[in-house]
């Protein structure tokens, strides 16, 4: 079998791509700071007073983080959900934008060679904007602080967060 230049070039590009996306073994983890950008999808589930006003909706967003070390990160999140106002008779669509910035502390526990568990706690502040589509109503803004707790289960570059 003869290897042609285009085949060799494609093989070289594939090899460089695989090598550049490979992870570093746990014992070789550098202590360097790093940036992360992750996309997510979830659900907007209004509670208390908002459950009488807004319907449940799908949420899409981005979260950026800067890891100072293995235990502490600065995080920022932006998300969007398209919901409906239950109290309006017409033009019920409302876009809900949520944004926040805070700090997150956690530890990593290697469960298996493939799975890593990272419980975390976080504190921060942010806001929410309600933009009513096709209405004369002005956008509404709410600001608040938050506390969070949960866990992240990672498998390579993929993860599930609660």
Strand content: over 45%
Mean pLDDT: 81
- Unreliable segments (pLDDT under 50, ≥5 consecutive)? 1-8, 15-27
The structure class reads mainly beta
Q: What's the alpha carbon Rg, rounded to whole Å?
A: 22 Å
Task: Report the end-to-end length measured between terminal Cα atoms.
Answer: 52 Å
User: Helix and strand succession?
Assistant: HEEEEEEEE
Helical proportion?
10-25%
Sheet having the most strands: 8 strands, antiparallel
Separate helix tally: 1
Shape type: elongated
Report the strand count.
8
Tell me what the structure shows.
The model is unreliable at about 1-10 and about 15-25 (pLDDT under 50). The protein contains one helix and eight strands. Helices cover about 10% and strands about 55% of the residues. It is mainly beta. Strands 1, 2, 3, 4, 5, 6, 7 and 8 form an eight-stranded antiparallel sheet that branches.
